[in-house]
Every structure is written in C-alpha cells, then in structure tokens.
Amino acid sequence: MPQLDFSVFPSQFFWLVINFALMLIIMSRFIIPKTAEMINLRKEKIDGDLEKAAEIKKQVEATIEKYNEALALANSKANISLQKTRDELKETINRRQADLITRLNAEIEAGEEKIASSKAKALQKIEEASADLAVEVLGKLGFSGIKVKDAKNALESIKKEQL
Questions:
Q1: How many CA atoms lie within 13 A of 23 on its CB side?
Q2: H/E/C letters for each residue in 108-162?
Q3: CB neighbour burial string for 117-128, b if at least 16 within 10 angstroms, e if fewer
C-alpha cells in the first residue's frame, strides 16, 4: 500500500496540505458567501411575507370589528326606535277611544315595515362591502381571479348554513 510507504509520506503530506488549503480558500471565498447570501435572502423574504400576513390579518380583524360594531349599532337603533314607538303608542291608546286603536295599529305596522326595510338595506350594504373586502383580501393573499359574484355566493351559502 502506497499510503503506508514512509518514503513517499512527506510528499503526500505536502500535497494534502496544499489541496486542503486550496479547498479551504475556495470554500471560504466563493461557496460559503454565496450560500450565506442565499440563506439571508430567503430569510428576508420569509420575514417580509410573515409581516405582510400579520398586517393583512390585523386589517381583516379591524374590518370584522367595524362590521360587528355597525351591526350592533343598527340593532340598538332599531331597538330604541321600537321602544319609543311602543311608549308613544301606549300613551296614545290610553288617551284615545276604540276608533283610534285601529289607526294606531296601522301606524305600528308601517313603522315596523320601515325598520325592516332599513335593516334589510343595511344588511345588503354590509354584505356587499363584505364581498368586496373578501375579494380584495384574497387578492392580496395571492388568490387572483376571484370575482365579487363568487364571494357573494359564498356569503349566501354561509348565511343559509347558519339559518
């Protein structure tokens, strides 16, 4: 075996050191910096994507919170309006005769229809805004090609499942 021949050992050791030094220089000057640069670029891209996702999540949560506030406000206004109408009707019923009761019942029905139509319009506007927002958020997340009509259909199906 030539490795164990001590007469050629110094020359083999010399070339081993030279090759090792060359490989060390090549690795440290060219390969390791490029690899480190690629790793840093990937890390920066991932961190940027995570920051964008967190920002979009905050926006979605804020929008949902605004939606819930608007819905609660509409409900409270409707309840206040109904309560005022009921109080007025009780006072009027106490002061008037039986012939006025019929007219007041008609006014109550008109008021409730008005409230119902206002609520329906408000819910319609909220649904439209939700569909537009969903399309925009999905577009920012990279799901292109989603139309507002598809988002509205999805909201309709969710609404039907909840009923």
A1: 6
A2: HHHHHHHHHHHHHHHHHHHHHHHHHHHHHHHHHCCCCCCCHHHHHHHHHHHHHHH
A3: eeeeebeeebee
> What is the distance of C-alpha 103 from the center of its chain?
50
Tokens 């891209």 -> residue: 45
pLDDT digits (tens, 9 = 90+) for 66-103: 999 999 999 999 999 999 998 988 887 777 767 767 78
Length of the chain: 163
Q: Write the single-letter amino acid at 87.
A: D
Q: Which amino acid is at 12?
A: Q
The secondary structure of 64-116 as a DSSP string is: HHHHHHHHHHHHHHHHHHHHHHHHHHHHHHHHS-HHHHHHHHHHHHHHHHHHH
What sign does the CA torsion over 145, 147, 152, 153 have? Answer: negative
| pTM confidence score | 0.36
